[in-house]
FXL18 protein (Zapornia atra), 706 residues
Amino acid sequence: QETASRESEEESNGVNLMEFSDEILLHILSYVPCTDLVLNVRRTCRKLATLCLDKSLTHTVLLQKDYKVNKDKVKQLMRDIGKEIYQLNMAGCYWLPSSTIDHVTRCKNLVKLNLSGCHVTSLRLSKMLSTLQHLRSLAIDVNPGFDASQLSSECKATLSRVSELKQTLYTPSYGVVPCCTSLEKLLLYFEILDRSREGFMLSGQLMVGESNVPHYQNLRVFYARLAPGYVNQEVVRLYLAVLSDRTPENLHAFLISAPGSFAETGATKNLLDSMARNVRLDALQLPKAWINGSGLLQHLKFNNPFYFSFSRCTLSGGHLIQRVINGGKDLKSLTSLNLSGCVHCLAPESLFRKAEDDIDSSILESLVVSCCNLRHLNLSAAHHHSSESIGNHLCRLLSRLKHLLSLALPVCSITDVAANVEKPPMASNLVPQTLGRKVRIGIQTYPRNLADQANQKIESSVFWALMGSLRFLETLEVIGSSFSSAMPRNEPAIRNSLPPCVRAQSVGDADVAAISQLTYLQSLTLAQLPNILTGSGLINIGLQCQHLRTLSLANLGMMGKVVYMSALMDMLKHCKCLRDLRLEQPYFCAGAQFFQALSHCSSLQRLCIVSRSGTLQSDAVMSFMANCLEVIMCHMFMGESLTVCKNLQQSIVRSFQADRPALNVVIFPLLHEDLTEVIRDVPMRHLDEITLFKSRVAEEPPNLWW
């Protein structure tokens, strides 16, 4: 009786969720997926039934990472609240059948619609768009077989009112661009392969009937991102040809992201000359061949620039200061800067300079002072070596950028030069990075708690100080300047990699532990840190960075052995919010102990392991998939035989596909000659976000799309 009385008293003194104000409840409900709100939560009581249909919750419906949604749920959702939806994002819903798109026609008031990554035929697109008269923003894929002649007059009328278009091309085509006569923002993603599945070479010429001219007269933003391949370059030139004839007067963002060599032509030179005469830009990104050796930057005019990308350009620091930063007069508006692979950007000139020479700290200081509001900065893929001058270290200068949210640095740039001068190199630094025969060395025992780590590493270390000053940093990448992934795109797997920078040899476990000061860290990438001995710093990160959602580790420590496995397993036990995990390490053993530790990551959705000569235990993988119900992507490229890989892949799909509609499984030998054919079938969302390694900081302008 006493127990019952106590429980009754606690209930009477407790807080009833329904007693909260409507404003608080609406804020809480905004974190619940819309499908759960409409199909489940609103059926619990009358009050929630009313709140779940509030306009603030039904105005924008996001299904892009709702991996549990299926065709029936979408059908019921559109039936219940279709007329209340003004913005619908179904990007990357690759698992939904194309017939699902038919239900979008119920959303008569749609203004913004994102169908990137969805299966949409020309006829279905025509039928759907014919009913969406209020549509102003559209994102679609253009796949082989797309035929613009199948679009109805009602569909073309809708497209004529669209002002924002994002189009991903898997075949040479203008897509729906010629129909969009009111375009103000055009985003183009070129994913056309040079060869068909049958091995035939493809042409960049447009299909018959695709000769309509795009309408760019109202264009304000032009963005094009090219995947590797000459066909993509041929097709983008056709899109640019119209721009070269007449440059839109209101153009304020011009961005072209092209890997490798993309030569400048007479047409593109005319376009750039016209831009220099007639427009003032707020965002700029050009292929490196268009900038290198030209005086283009000296003639372009800028208004209030918020994004610059000079990735892989030979732009020197002198030119950067003189032609872009303009003495620091007009760059307070800049929030995102990408200097990845720009090896001379922190040196006064590049003519007689070696890539490994020390940087000129005065150039970096000018950059920091001029661009004091930077939120995203990428300095990766270059040797940015600080001199021994006190107070001029790169990390000390960057610590002044208090607004930074994402940062990418080369490993050699965080080396504490003064500390290295005082101490002789550790024995482990002298060990060659062999791939085969293992070398036995004495390993120093590192403590596993943060306090002891801090005592061992001088607290005045420049990297410790930098991490301490950037407390609100959400994304951090520390990548070796010579690192290249073993699985590049559209090419066979790389069998050998370049050795790490000499200065990177002194970056070890204590430096990794410094990252644990970033309380709000959400995404972390560490690649090519050769002096990792135990990985003890990873444990500190797992304990302190409780918001961590994305973790990518590649080539840490000696290449012949995974020295950090024990620490990694300890770390994973604390990563309750981790959703994406990518591991790239030779000789990685994905066994029972690893998957048992990984099972503690209850929020994990995507797993990718790339390991030359790596092994896996099929039973452990199956047990992991059974325990982690949220996992919808499992990619493993290991050293196992094709038979073992195929059998495991089939077992996973057969066992879990029915309950996980979005399940995508690829298990394949890393060095197999057909790897590129397998990769081409991976959904673009997974391929671009996790499977392929790349630096993602300042890769695109912020808020480029929703």
